[in-house]
User: Fold these one by one.
Assistant:
Number 1:
Amino acid sequence: MNQVTALAKEHQAEKVVRIVVRIGPLSGIEARLLESAFTISRAGTLAEDAELVTEEQPVCVLCNVCGTESAACVNQLICASCGSCDTKLLSGDELILARVELENPD
Ligand SMILES: [Zn+2]
């Protein structure tokens, strides 16, 4: 939230229209909880009327055996190509502030 209001000030925006956040399913953050935290923290800020949009990120793994990058299930980080579970997580555990839409005075 501080990041959002700092950005708005930086761009001399009148208000924040929309905030887009990307959440990986392995981040441990639930969109619902984020939304309620957002509702509380935005009161009295430039983002008071902003809409919060959450986008779920896919889980991606890199196989240490065959080198394939593939999508994986949250509970099963296995290679889609060879079935190995010796994989490295590439994405799915992030919480990213993807986009902030601002309204500027004309
Ligand atoms: Zn593999």
Number 2:
Amino acid sequence: MTHITRRSFLKVAGGTAAVGAIGVPHIALGASKKVVVVGGGVGGATVAKYLRRADASIEVTLIEPNKHYYTCFMSNEVLGGERTMDSIKFDYSGLAKHGVKVVHDTVTGIDAAARKVTTAGGQTFGYDRCVVAPGIDFKWDAIGGYDEKAAEIMPHAWKAGPQTTILQKQLQDMKDGGTVIIAAPDNPFRCPPGPYERASQIAHYLKKHKPKSKVLILDAKDKFAKQGLFMAGWKKHYGDMIEWVGAAGGGKIESVDVASRSLQGAVEKYKGDVVNVIPPQKAGKIAHTAGLVNDKGWCPVNQGTFESTIHANIHVLGDASIAGEMPKSGYSANSQAKVCAAAVAALLNGMEAPVPAYVNTCYSLITPEHGISVAAVYQLVDGAITGVKGAGGLTPADASEEMLKREVAYAHSWFKNITADTFG
Ligand SMILES: Cc1cc2nc3c(=O)[nH]c(=O)nc-3n(C[C@H](O)[C@H](O)[C@H](O)COP(=O)(O)OP(=O)(O)OC[C@H]3O[C@@H](n4cnc5c(N)ncnc54)[C@H](O)[C@@H]3O)c2cc1C
């Protein structure tokens, strides 16, 4: 029985550009197609839902250990005192309504030859195609003394949830006049503007509650996303409260001492009252276990379908993948998931994957009335995801107060839309 029509296929490919050579579906009669999705974050949840929308005959099983997902996006606003943890908490009931089978377990192995996924709970799932979207893990050996135990005292808060709450509580408990240190990693890492939005939101909280305090950003690089806009916003709203030290100034952290809450840079030792260390990153652990990573710890893929270039029939998307010029963001993961769903549905039905198009916008909130954004549209050029010239852009440096305020409203409506699109 043919379950996918050209019309329904084009519907899912709607997020993509002109659909390429789609022939008459060629489907093995009665064959059931199975896709296992590993990870129920933005990328995994979106691909699971959009696969079912593309072809309701595909059996989609999503495996995710947690019953709730806390979005990293807008978690900086929790630190700023502008929203609650509950407002960034989502569950998987919406996916079940689309016919996605959600299993709460941790994937411990993917056998590419046998096309089988195994879990910590002892379950095994066979697949025709597997989509892996495990997000990031940390390079725990990159900063001397900084390990999972140290992260309980010097939180990274780079995976939202309990880590966000630890950092929030430390900010609340800190004395007025204290120093908050944020150690930012070198590229590539999850959410390039994230550490600087975090500095803004923490400064917003401190200005209101502990105005004699300071935020010091120690950076492993010499420039960062939306730098000019951030720095102008900091000066305007927070004066000297935020200080940034780049790599050339000794900002790269070599080691930490948890007991004294201090960090050793190339030149100086820094001591903070609250220390937020964001360590260097790599693809989520399961991508390593399954042999899907390169020597840098990220997953090379066919950037048109997100199929791994190492193991056939396994696709990797979101932060774990190498996706050309796209930044590692939630919006990127959501956009890649739609491209991947369209490709997987087509390939499982004996069709060619459609011509993809991708989009990303990253909003950053400097105050509740001052937002900035960067937006881009991408296409596939010679196999690499490449920005389309003239599409997208940056908040202008001379934007009016009204426009900056509007950016905040856009950010909040983007949050409502993307979470509904992913989990609804
Ligand atoms: C402070 C901060 C602010 C941010 N702000 C923005 C923003 O404004 N806009 C934006 O677009 N992006 C933002 N991001 C980035 C965004 O959160 C990530 O890019 C996005 O979550 C990536 O999606 P993903 O699906 O690849 O990974 P994740 O969302 O991390 O999902 C991975 C999932 O896989 C699961 N998993 C891992 N291993 C296994 C396994 N072995 N078995 C089963 N499941 C597994 C995890 O439990 C998790 O649920 C921000 C990030 C941070 C840290």
